[in-house]
């Protein structure tokens, strides 16, 4: 049934329950393989990222739970690591040296006109204010900046799974309906996914917002392109609450099938494997 999930937050970052509760939910929902991926530390504290002084606890808590439920589920540990700039991103040695099973690379933040860091992974209303007040209403510039961060992260590496590849598209579409049909944006997406394919990353189909916004990240319109480019995919719910671990998964798997995919990547016995979609 492809009941797996590798993008999940808990109390070590901004998740709403402890690690063990997520695992118990996963077991009771029939999941076979599950991973936690707290937001990795940034060079400054935030309400949504882990701090470095919690890393040892995160890893030992993982090992305790993994052992406790070893007969019921395969449990793995990862991190969702931000590309902030060349000094803080998945490629730096501090992250590479951690004993993790996998790493998710994501972009949530940009620098505004004055060089200040701005979180653009926000609601459409807040995003509109940010574009208007901090980027002189220049949506194109914000989009290009976002994807230039993504391109740089792809170049530097240090991660296995690209997190919510085009997440900003939803907020950008709210700002300017029709954006996804604009030729320059379409070409940008073709360049972007081609680069991802050449670099050999897996791409998650992030189903977190499907029931809220009716879209996956990346948007379903790119699924045939991902298939054509031979990009390996998996469905992740990016759950912050245990009851959301399966949110949007059946819909995402059905959408992948419609696009011609017949398998998704799952972690079994410590190795990523292509498993047929049931
Ligand atoms: Zn994220
Ligand atoms: Zn996340």
TrEMBL record:
It comes from the Bacteria. InterPro entries: Histidinol_P_phosphatase_HisJ, PHP_dom, Pol/histidinol_Pase-like. GO terms for biological process: L-histidine biosynthetic process. Its EC number is 3.1.3.15. Pathway: Amino-acid biosynthesis; L-histidine biosynthesis; L-histidine from 5-phospho-alpha-D-ribose 1-diphosphate: step 8/9. One of its GO terms (molecular function) is histidinol-phosphatase activity. GO terms for cellular component: cytoplasm. Keywords: Amino-acid biosynthesis, Histidine biosynthesis, Hydrolase. It holds the Pfam family PHP. CDD domains: PHP_HisPPase_Hisj_like. It catalyses: L-histidinol phosphate + H2O = L-histidinol + phosphate. It is an enzyme of class 3 (hydrolase). Residues 6-207 form the PHP domain. Belongs to the PHP hydrolase family. HisK subfamily. This is Histidinol-phosphatase. It comes from Jilunia laotingensis.
């Amino acid at each position: 049934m492809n009941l797996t999930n590798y993008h999940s937050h808990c109390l070590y970052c901004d998740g709403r329950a402890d690690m063990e509760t997520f695992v118990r939910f996963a077991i009771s929902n029939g999941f076979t393989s599950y991973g936690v991926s707290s937001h990795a530390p940034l060079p400054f504290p935030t309400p949504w990222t882990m701090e470095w002084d919690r890393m040892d606890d995160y890893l030992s808590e993982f090992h305790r739970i993994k052992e406790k439920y070893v007969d019921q589920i395969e449990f793995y540990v990862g991190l969702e690591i931000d590309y902030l700039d060349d000094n803080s991103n998945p490629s730096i040695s501090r992250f590479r040296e951690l004993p993790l099973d996998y790493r998710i690379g994501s972009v949530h933040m940009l620098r505004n006109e004055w060089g200040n860091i701005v979180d653009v992974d926000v609601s459409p209303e807040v995003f509109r204010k940010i574009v208007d007040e901090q980027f002189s209403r220049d949506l194109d510039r914000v989009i290009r900046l976002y994807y230039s961060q993504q391109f740089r992260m792809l170049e530097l590496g240090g991660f296995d799974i690209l997190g919510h590849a085009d997440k900003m598209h939803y907020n950008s579409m709210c700002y300017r309906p029709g954006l996804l049909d604009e030729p320059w944006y379409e070409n940008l997406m073709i360049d972007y996914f081609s680069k991802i394919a050449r670099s050999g990353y897996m791409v998650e189909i992030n189903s977190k917002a499907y029931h809220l916004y009716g879209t996956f990240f990346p948007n379903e319109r790119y699924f045939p392109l991902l298939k054509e480019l031979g990009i390996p995919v998996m469905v992740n719910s990016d759950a912050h609450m245990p009851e959301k671990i399966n949110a949007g998964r059946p819909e995402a798997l059905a959408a992948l099938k419609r696009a011609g995919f017949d398998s998704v990547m799952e972690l079994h016995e410590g190795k990523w494997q292509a498993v047929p979609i049931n």
